[in-house]
Amino acid sequence: MLSLSIATPGTAAIFRRGSASATSTSSSFHGVKIQHQVSARVSAISSPGKSSVVMMSKREAELKDIRSKTTEELQEEVVDLKGELFMLRLQKSARNEYKSSEFRRMKKLVARMLTVKREREIEEGIGKRLSRKLDRQWKKSIVPRPPPSLKKLQAEEAAEEAAEAAKSA
Fold this sequence. Notes:
Blueprint: E1 2-7, E2 12-17, E3 23-29, E4 32-38, H1 58-68, H2 71-93, H3 101-124, H4 128-141, H5 148-168
Antiparallel strand pairs: 1-2, 1-4, 3-4
Region (Disordered): 140-169
Family: Belongs to the universal ribosomal protein uL29 family.
Protein name: Large ribosomal subunit protein uL29c
């Protein structure tokens, strides 16, 4: 990948990073020779008789699931995910334990869903201006509701209280 050689009149030192490859580019500057080796990617060649198994990446599988949903389902899920993001921000501000990777994952998932929604609008011939107008109307029509994680937490607390009431009775 990258090879650096420093040559003085009496000694020579070579520092290498990576391995040798088919092509390379190099330049020299006042006795310092910098050589950058570019590795070419070679696609895997399957041997005859062996079947190649193609694995779908997680992102592609996620996109397939997203595309299979209706636009209304996507909008509902976007609202839920934004509620989850709000709950994560609350946990962060309260200095509770939370997974910081969830922020990025949820934001990307919301972006993917909105992208699929916009792709469908483009297929229907809805322009950018009308799309934004429809989005504003949709946002105004959203009824505030607790996110699924909060609902689950409330259900667990209610079950604990019911169990305690049953023990004391």
